[in-house]
């Protein structure tokens, strides 16, 4: 049992993780005719908590409780994996990325997330404004405007051969490349890195 | 192809990408299966380090194959599964015909997709990993999640005024 847990605790390679994620598509279809999509949960939470009479949030969100339970499960899964199946070794990040990020002032590679960014001390600073407030807002606004995120478009949409999802995925990548290669450095300088 | 019983149907609301087309809705404990499926999903997110801000940076800097392998093999697996469901006319466990709604092209997929991409490279997380990061103990990501909810709400508020 211990050896099994140790084996599970190593980082899982892409060819294990990718197919399991892909199988979520048929699993949801077969379990209950559900289309895979995670960003919809954000809409359902808005509809449940602050609908404010807006037509976009006026629908029966209770019918979509499954989606909210799914994302609750994602959080629980995160808790279980981190607390019971944690990788004993530090994350291995490509040396080229470490070099690029060191130039931006990110030097701590001991955890899955850079502690220099993702800490509560940064909350009321420019760093928090950029990485939590602005970043989160763009993710929420953009996914809803696009009608989906990586799960709904890139995985579910392309799996079912829908060309609008291919377009959406291309523009996810365009935005990501532009931010990473052009905007991130000046923005990080601006907030004090 | 003549045996294809699964039709792609239009949905009432094209903005909803994860529509629920089940006729007899799951209730009570039946809903637990989605919690369990989500839990497995969250474990994979952490174990394959998909929740890592570093892995997303590697992806956008083209310095590692990992994320491309994950997303690519997920798409291939999903594609094969959807084809099998269609060709073998597989039904849901409740015997319903499986329906996959057509996505309608709109400008939002370009503009919104681009905006999401900008955010993805900052937060290092698309919506799924946000939940897994919080569960993993990166509690400050709760702020990111609240901000993502605010972004979703602002989109909903101005949805009819934006080009689409």
From TrEMBL, chain A:
The chain crosses the membrane at residues 12-32, 67-86, 128-146, 166-184. It is found in: Cell inner membrane. The keyword Membrane applies. It comes from the Bacteria. InterPro entries: Sulf_transp_TsuA/YedE (IPR007272). It is a multi-pass membrane protein. Keywords: Cell inner membrane, Cell membrane, Membrane, Transmembrane, Transmembrane helix, Transport. Belongs to the TsuA/YedE (TC 9.B.102) family. PANTHER family: INNER MEMBRANE PROTEIN YEDE (PTHR30574), SULPHUR TRANSPORT DOMAIN-CONTAINING PROTEIN (PTHR30574:SF1). This is YeeE/YedE family protein. It comes from Algoriphagus oliviformis.
From TrEMBL, chain B:
Keywords: Membrane, Transmembrane, Transmembrane helix. The chain crosses the membrane at residues 31-53, 65-85, 110-132, 138-156. The keyword Amino-acid biosynthesis does not apply. It holds the Pfam family Sulf_transp. This is YeeE/YedE family protein. The keyword Transmembrane helix applies. It comes from Algoriphagus oliviformis.
